[in-house]
Amino acid sequence: MKITQLSTYRVSPRWMFLKIDTDEGISGWGEPVIEGRARTVEAAVHELGELLIGQDPARINDLWQAMYRGGFYRGGAVFMSALAGIDQALWDIKGKALGVPVYQLLGGLVRDRMKIYSWVGGDRPADIVAGIQTLQALGLNTFKMNGTEELAMLDSAKAVDAAVARIAGLRSVFGYDIEFGIDFHGRVAWPMAKPLLRELEPYRPLFVEEPVLAEQSDYYRRLSDMTSIPLAAGERMYSRFEFKRVLEQGGLAVLQPDLSHAGGISECLRIAAMAEAYDVALAPHCPLGPVALAACLQVDFVSYNAVLQEQSMGIHYNQGAELLDYVHNAADFRMEGGYIEPLPLPGLGVDINEERVIEASRSAPDWRNPLWRHADGSVAEW
Ligand SMILES: O=C(O)[C@H](O)[C@@H](O)[C@@H](O)[C@H](O)CO
Ligand SMILES: [Mg+2]
């Protein structure tokens, strides 16, 4: 079998799909994207594609290493997202060619179903109680929300109290019948991370995500030493070489690699195994589309330390299209009681509605995240 063509489709809400065709009529799908930089990743995919045309898609390991190491420069959000989508598509081809789901090629199921969570509250945490009540009615009991609005490097006790009051309100309404992660989203700098974690401690969130920016990861250990709240991060780390340093220094209880940013299934499997060696849990990041989620699930269902899966149904970013709008097999994404079952189809388990994708790609928006500013006019982390 030989790779014949790579086609990319940028679509609403802010996703990109990659289709890799072969000379035997089997095609694989991937979801390479950096949210807000889709065109940049698209260019990177097609540059990497030069290495793939004419190659045997079965040789995922060799192709992965050739793409990762062959261009001298390596790593980073754009390149590793392009590589991730290609890797996903190659695994999709392999599973389809052999007639089995990817997880069967990786040793089979380690669990029968995977716990999922949903976002509530939007860009600036609001209406969280109502959001949770709506999702509870659908059987969900685990959620994630932004912890703060804009927060200055050194902010007021009032700003901390506002963040804490929202969480205290959740516990007063729902008690411990729900669990939730709090995403600091990189908005909290080192000076504010400690006071915020300390004040949140009594409400026992499931985890705090990105307690400081990924480039400040050397603080994870110090923050972990001062709080019992499990700390999570990973969506802005892009290879096992980045996660290696974070695992060695300690501090993170949960790793959140993104299957569409951290080199795909091949790389995230390695990251999952490294995390397990340190007794660190895995909760793949996935605010994206169906192929990205399917790739996460293939890793979740073979990784003992996979504990929680983000999925984007109802997320505030999905304006113009929802998680399962581009698939024929929405019914295969069986979410019930806060869990999702293994996808039954061969490959990644997604039956992409190609006509719908092509149609949507004709009017794809160039999504951008907002540029926030503090009261003094300086840039605020979004
Ligand atoms: O945890 C999450 O889902 C992420 O922090 C998410 O909000 C961002 O990755 C966003 O997609 C960036 O555009
Ligand atoms: Mg996050």
From TrEMBL:
Entry annotation: catalytic residues: 185 (proton donor/acceptor), 285 (proton donor/acceptor)
Origin superkingdom: Bacteria
Entry's cofactor comment: Binds 1 Mg(2+) ion per subunit.
Site (Transition state stabilizer): 310
Keyword set, alphabetical order: Lyase, Magnesium, Metal-binding
EC number: 4.2.1.6
Gene Ontology MF annotations: galactonate dehydratase activity; magnesium ion binding
Substrates-to-products reaction catalysed: D-galactonate = 2-dehydro-3-deoxy-D-galactonate + H2O
Boundaries of every Mandelate racemase/muconate lactonizing enzyme C-terminal domain copy: 125-230
Cofactors: Mg(2+)
Site (Increases basicity of active site His): 258
GO-annotated biological processes: amino acid catabolic process; D-galactonate catabolic process
Broadest EC class assigned to this enzyme: lyase
Annotated binding of Mg(2+), by residue: 183, 209, 235
Entry's family note: Belongs to the mandelate racemase/muconate lactonizing enzyme family. GalD subfamily.
Cited NCBIfam families: PRK14017.1 (NF010624)
Functional summary from the UniProt entry: Catalyzes the dehydration of D-galactonate to 2-keto-3-deoxy-D-galactonate.
Other comments on record: Reaction proceeds via an anti dehydration.
The protein's name: D-galactonate dehydratase
Biological classification of the source: Bacteria, Pseudomonadati, Pseudomonadota, Betaproteobacteria, Burkholderiales
